[in-house]
């Protein structure tokens, strides 16, 4: 008879993986330490995930799914570059308001070079998003034609995430993640891209 999966244990594993990644980075979070924090055996963890990479990729997909869906939806609408960046920043800030642990996890991975090397999928998706943003900016003439895809990627995946990383350190971070600051961060991005 096959062993049953305990959904509570799986949630504990996911939470432990998120916490360990935030605290120690991608490389510092081992399967053994994740299992220990979750209160499960490493064997239990390996029955559900072939590797730490698979576990973290599943978590990344879960947290980025909504952001990606909103991004794709916004591209189907007739918006300019500035409005598109406002939407990206707004959705990122909403994630932080809804799930601060998830936001910290995504921030930790965005700035973790060792994870970037492990996740070719993440790099490809970032460049694809950056290419679409660049194309939109060129179409609407809101972007300097000399701006490269790599520059767009650096701006879009640094300024909003770094700003959020600084703001969530404050006790009143939810108040600060408002429309005024969404627009300010979008302006910083636009200015950096021109």
From TrEMBL:
Pfam families membership: TetR_N
Q: Which GO terms describe its molecular function?
A: DNA binding
DNA-binding region, as residue ranges, is located at: 30-49
Gene3D superfamilies the UniProt entry points to: Tetracycline Repressor, domain 2
tRNA processing is among the record's keywords: no
Residue ranges of every copy of the HTH tetR-type domain listed in the record:
7-67
| UniProt-listed PROSITE patterns | HTH_TETR_2
UniProt key word Ribonucleoprotein:
no
| InterPro entries given in the database record | Homeodomain-like_sf (IPR009057), HTH-type_Tx_Regulator (IPR050624), HTH_TetR (IPR001647)
Q: Which keywords does UniProt give here?
A: DNA-binding
From the Swiss-Prot or TrEMBL record, give the protein name: TetR/AcrR family transcriptional regulator
